[in-house]
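Chapter summary example.
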Amino acid sequence: MSNVVITLPQNSISPLSIRAKVLVFEDKKSEELLKHIGLIAPSNANVLVMGETGTGKELIAREIHKQSLRAGSPFVAINCGAFSETLIESELFGHEKGAFTGAVSSKEGWFEAANGGTLFLDEIGDLPLQLQVKMLRVLQEGQVVKLGSRQLKDIDVRIIAATNINLEDSVAAGRFREDLYYRLNVVSLYLPPLKERPGDILPLAKYFIQTYSKRLGLSDIELSAAAVKLLVEGYPWPGNIRELENVIHHALLVCRSKIIQPEDLNLRKSKPISFQAREAADKTAQEKFRDALLAMFESEDENLYENIERQVMKTAFDFCHHNQLETARLLGISRNIVRAILIKNGDLHPKVREKEKQ
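The structure predicted for these 358 residues follows.
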C-alpha cells in the first residue's frame, strides 16, 4: 500500500485542545487499520475508538466520516472532558432562552449541529453518570430535548466515541453505564501507540520536517543516519504523534545546519530495556503488590477498601508531583474522579483547587 496521510483540515474549529494533527498509514498495523476503516465506514453503526492520548483518534473519526455516506453532512467534534458537569448538558442538547442564569438566548446543541452527519465524542469516559442516562435515551429514541423545553426534536446522528481509558473497567467500577457502553461499542477500533507501529515514525518525522520547514522558511532539511536510528529504535514515544511533532519542531529551531543530529532532537534520557527485563520487573512489582495486599487483608481492617483506594490515589498523586491531570492519565481515570477522591480523603481541599497546577 502506498503512503496514506490524513491531516486535520486547516480551518478546523474543533473544540479539542490536545490532539495529534496527522496520521501516516505506512506501518503494517496502520495499513490493516485503514482497511478496517474502509469496511465499517459506509455503515451507520456507532464506533468506539480506543487509544492513548496523542495517537490521532479524532483523525480516525474524521476518516470514518469522510468514507461514510454522511460525508457531505456535518462532522462535529466535542471533548466531553472539556466542560463542567453543569455546562456539558447544554452543550450537547442545547437550551432555550431563560433555561438557566446566563441563557440570554436559545442555542442549539452539538447533537442538532451534527444532524444528518457524525458527532465525535472524545474522552467519553469523562461523561458524568447523569448525562450518560440522557445520552442513552437520545441514542435509543433518536430525539433530543433542549434544556428549558418540552419539545422533542428528531435527530439523525452517527456517534463516534473515543477514549484513552479502559471503559470495561469503568463499567465494572460503576463509573460508566453498561447499557451505554454496548450502545456505543457496536464497532470498536484500537489505535496502537506510536511505539507499536515503528514503520510510521520516519514518514511522520519527514512530514513534520516538510510542514515546519515551510513555516520557518527553511529548505532541504534532512535527518542524519544517527537521528533516524534514535527516532525509530531508541525512544519509546510516550507522547505518541503529538510528542514526535514537537520534537521535530524543536529540532528545526535549534539545528545549526541542514542535517538534524541526535542532539537536536532533545529527547528525554531513557535507557533501553529488553522485553524480558521489563516483563521480569513488572512481575516483581506485581508480586510485591500482591504481598502487600495479603498483609492488609490479614489486618482485618474495617475500612480496608477505602484505605487501599486512598493509598493508591495518594501515592499516584505524590508520584505525579500533585498534578491532577497526570495522576488521571497514570491511573487511566478521569480528572474529575481523581479530584473527587482526593477531596473525599482529605488530601485536597476544594478552596485551593484554583491554585493547583493544571
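To summarize the output: The chain has a mean pLDDT of 84.
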